[in-house]
Amino acid sequence: MNPTGNVFIPPEFLPAAAEIAVLGMVCVILILDLFLSDRSRWITYALCLGTLALAAVLTAVVVPEGRVLTFGDTFISDPLARTLKLFTYMVVATVFLYSKDYLRERNLFRGEYYVLALFATLGIMVMISAHSMLTLYLGLELLSLSLYAMVAFSRDDPIAAEAAMKYFVLGAIASGCFLFGTSILYGVTGSLDLAEIQRATQTLDALNIHLMFAVSFILVGVAFKFGAVPFHMWMPDVYQGAPTSVTLFIGSAAKVASFAMLIRIVADSLGALHDSWGGMLVVMCLLSMAIGNVVAIAQTNLKRMLAYSTISHVGFILLGVLTGTSAGVEAALYYTLAYVIMAAAGFGMILLLSRKGFEADEIEDFRGLNARSPWFAGIMLVVMFSMAGVPPFLGFWAKLAVLGAAVDVGLTWLAVSAVLFSVVGAFYYLRVVWRMYFDEPDALVTLNPAFDLRLVLSLNGLLIVLLGIFPQGLISLCNQVITG
Amino acid sequence: METNILSIVIWLPVIGGFLVLALGQRANAGRWLSLGVSLLTLVASIPLFTQFDRTTAAMQFVERAPWIERFRVDYYLGVDGVSMPLILLTTFMTVLVVIAGWEVIKNRSNQYFASFLIMEGVMNGVFASLDAMLFYVFWEAMLIPMFIIIGVWGGPRRIYATLKFFLYTFLGSVLMLVALIYLYMESGSYEIADFQVLGIGMREQVLIFLAFLIAFAVKVPMWPVHTWLPDAHVEAPTGGSVILAAIMLKMGGYGFLRFSLPITPDASMTLDWLIITLSLIAVVYIGFVALVQTDMKKLIAYSSIAHMGFVTLGFFLVYTINRNGDGLAGAAMGLEGGMVQMVSHGLISGAMFLCVGVLYDRMHSREIMDYGGVVNTMPKFAALMVLFAMANAGLPGTSGFVGEFLVILASFRANPWFAFLAATTLVLGAAYTLWMVKRVVFGAVANDGVAALEDIGTREMLVLGVLAVAVLLLGVWPAPLLEVMGPTIDHLLDQIVRSKL
Q: Shortest CB distance from A426 goes to which of B67, B158, B167?
């Protein structure tokens, strides 16, 4: 791309304006935070929210619309990227709002947490905009390394340390697999550029053994980051062991990145090899739904239960992608956004009920919540029924979209298995409702959360209802993003 | 005709329910508001009957607006002769349930009334939806308030019962969801009328029929998927039992008329033996089961299953009658009988559960053996309970007779053996109901508890009295109901005997 010999033509920076701004701000915050006392730590917090707002403005206004490639075609900005990034900012901001008091009560309210979270966010953004295997890997590692540190952030907590260790070791193996697959793919196609790979795979024999090898290894990496069975082992331990605010981050914002990775590489770039990876995804999808839903029943810890529930939702997302149609990808995108909104509210509830020296992460801790706070019991009820896929909540429409995409390509049997497993799954969601409504509380401890937490969590819950009653907006947004 | 009556009967109670919730702990205000909302809804639903055009089978009071364009889902409402009576039944029974719960519910009464109001709106939505996805949304949403009602205000085994209720019905409906999605993919819209005219191959029809069957059979409930009902009924608070028996069970029957028969007529024809067999088993076998019950609520629950067997039997006699080649006159009778039976059973079973509720509020027991000689201390109540028991047994002059008689007549046209088996219910029904009445109401005063009973007050008298009038009125003068249904049933008949292959 360099036409006249040695003359250096700077790349176009505008499409990456948000990434550059976030990177700059993180460095500023990192330095600034050194000079802040604990009492004025709120400045860090405010600056982080400001950074996200700045990034949102840049993404919405400055970044050119349409599909733009830059940095030697390694970076892409398209409607999908812009939408996912805007969504990510919102989710990360929600995570910050939810976890402020939680962190403060546990002496974790430190600059490092916010800097790491912003680095992770930057990683997510880079992954979303990746147009080369290398960019993708860069973003992936930035995200993963930040997350490992965040999980271990509560230094004195042995469970958190164990979770971080497991996450790191397994994550490193998965990254290795991904990199190995990438190198084979490079060997076969001669390029790391996603568009080049797409072109090359269309001409190559789909049964090319090297190619299949590459696809398998890449898929292992993607499935691990997503938490699809059989690469899900880290999820329950990490979800349970990490501080809830970090679990919230992993369970919501990080899922957007996994989805972007799945779409950019598997559905788009390797789209021609649908016959190869489609079957693998069918197996993972079925296993995820089966193991996620069945094992969740046995959990008594809510964070762990939500981890298994995530696994089962990942099964649904894979169900959308494995159809190989654009309607399927669109449905999967819709499902991902819906899931992230629900998961944020679910973990937000745990943060709401937790107080100094007490983690409300057991299902038993929700006992009799209706007597303590009918409003938040109602919100949790909405979240649970929505996750179970009961209309008229958001989760139902997401399931409907995915099932529709599956039936459309003749995978009715898979759709039937999916709904049957979701009946199994309904049980453990109902159990939370049962604890809240049918049991009396042990002690009438009144909830006294901060105003901002209450407000945002209420809005989050209402959003699930609202997008359930008027789903058209989000659905057509997904449609526009995918079909352009 | 530009109206929005249907939207009003759906959303008024739902919004009212949330207002009642917003009242928080103010129980008295909540009660009055609930009563006001339910009465308003009842009043709002009356024009559905008075302004109903009795000469056409077309949908009336139609409202339509796009809802989710991406999936071509419309907010599409309308009623015909089949759904309109069921909406009236819903609005009518909800008022009674609110009054019946007036003093009885002490714990979180506002949440209780709110649940019933929200459920009323959602149930009206089920009957009024002409868009399959809208129908499904209401159909499933209904489970949430019922789950809460049974779980919070139910008896000792309420959690088991409510989980069983939810999971059973959820399992039934998800397969229907896949069937609906399939039909959408074939027809390109979720409109039920489009499904009804869509040509479908035999293999697909059978699969769709079975998916629908599971959903509706669980709801009706048909033997052998009825086991959730006795548990749910026994554990639910009185109001919950009433709504379950009076309205929710009807949704299964309604589903057969709206979905199974017109959408998959050929599969219905091929598999009608299955439904008829299951219905006859329900009528006969469950009748015997009811006979041995010692718990009054359980007895009425089993009697409900037996009576609903009549409904499904009436609906699926069509094909046998058609095969006999004597014309379709008898077939229409079967369908009409089934419909009348649904409405009548709604009133009678509701009344029976309310009667048990009256006794339970005083004695805190549902066991038959704890009672005896109630007539001596509660003469007014005893008179009403005997009336409802007679109606439950199908005494001529009560609404219970009309439906059963029509179905038995129709089954005679189909096969005398069907009629014979169906008619055993007259004997069995009389046996289990009247035997229960004999043991509970008549005889000498059994114990001190019964001796101390107080007769029903004005509030209870009002509820039971209104129901008694309705039961008798429908029994001696069913013509208005039959008139409303007539054209719809004829149209339906035409649809369901025409092959789609």
A: B167
